[in-house]
Amino acid sequence: MASQTAHDLRTVVTRRVGVKKRVAVLTNDLALVRAIEANGCLVLADPASLDELEAFRPEVVVLFDGFVLADGAAALQRLARAAGQAELVCSFANAASASLALGNLTGLQPTPAFAEPEVRRWLSSAGYVVSSRDAVITAPRATSLSADTEAALRQVFEQLNPDAAVDRFLLVAKRGAEATKPDRTEGLVSVIVSGGTDVAALEGTISSLANQQRRPLELIVVAPLPLASLEDVVTRARRRSGLTVSTHPSTSDDANTRLNEGLTHAQGQYVAFAEAGALFSPMHFTALVKQLEDGTLAWAMTTALPGPFSLRTWLEAGVAKEQWLLDVTRLGSFKLTFAEAAPDADAVLFARLALLFPPAFITAPSTVELLRQPTVDLPAMLAKLKGRPLRGLTTLEALLHTTPTPPLSAQVQERLASIDPRAGAVIERARGLADRVQSAWVKAKKDAEKK
To answer: How far apart are CA 94 and CA 110, in angstroms?
Structure first.
């Protein structure tokens, strides 16, 4: 389904109408009528009744906000009875527009607007199927805000919902039958597994996911392998109770592209990610789901880092998507995608999420074993985002927090322990003895001062 951007509403409407057709325009916009007539069309402008419209037998009907403002779905159902054979070209103001929100915040006269999902439901109830979609951007209305503040607010709105940049939508629809896309299944965890050509690594990940105690569970496996090979990998998993598996051969050799492909198939309330080779402990998703169910936050993760949450500290420590679980019903219209063919895609998505949705986290030993630990080049990542910088809704404390640097003795002990655990134990005993000697000396000094 096409989605384009235009700056001239009349131009895009005229283009969508086509040439040499019988067109009914349900408005008295003379300039639009003349533009459509210039395409060789016969135009009925602003008909007085549905009877007049029916008698005209249009091939195309053009309508705007005012037609559905009063009755919504009922108006479209009446239109379908009068001109059901016609294609609809329907334009309406976007209720999620940043310009509209800013105008309302600063006291400008509100503009009647509609949410795109609502209009699609109305069309569907009248038997229409949307075949194309245009996003129309118009000249913004001036507000009383400073330009910098307004730009920052627009960035936040567009991070929450990319369609916030759109002022109007134009949908083209025809009568027909279409399978309704299922809603999210409450309680279901969808895990998108991106596999490469290493079948053994993929089998290991699928096996560990099949052993998850959390049910219901959905696995969406995307890999550049023949369908028969993918089906062989998931044969055992398909036999597990409460577990559904779908396989999707991919033509891409980019892991992030495959994750995005898998996202289009996910039906769960909760979404998680995995690359082939990752191994999950059986209680991994059980603990994360409980963390989300017990609170109101939109996503959770396991981590060995101490709290409170610090975006910079966590990014520098490396973030692994396998540790996340997202409640997509709490993300609203946030665009959940990975930057394709980008080495820092995990970190970018992590930052986009964390700036708008503070994460819940379980501080504990990792419940995921990874083939390689994630790293991020923070300066390079920030450089990539300069053209469209991110804005946050997190707290000032979270942005300013840094984890204190441990004492040098503790760093030495940790380093020695990583080389030889016995050396770490010796250091620990020595530190304990030193602490006891120091405490005894302080006590003796205080006793002497009292005499």
So the answer is: 12
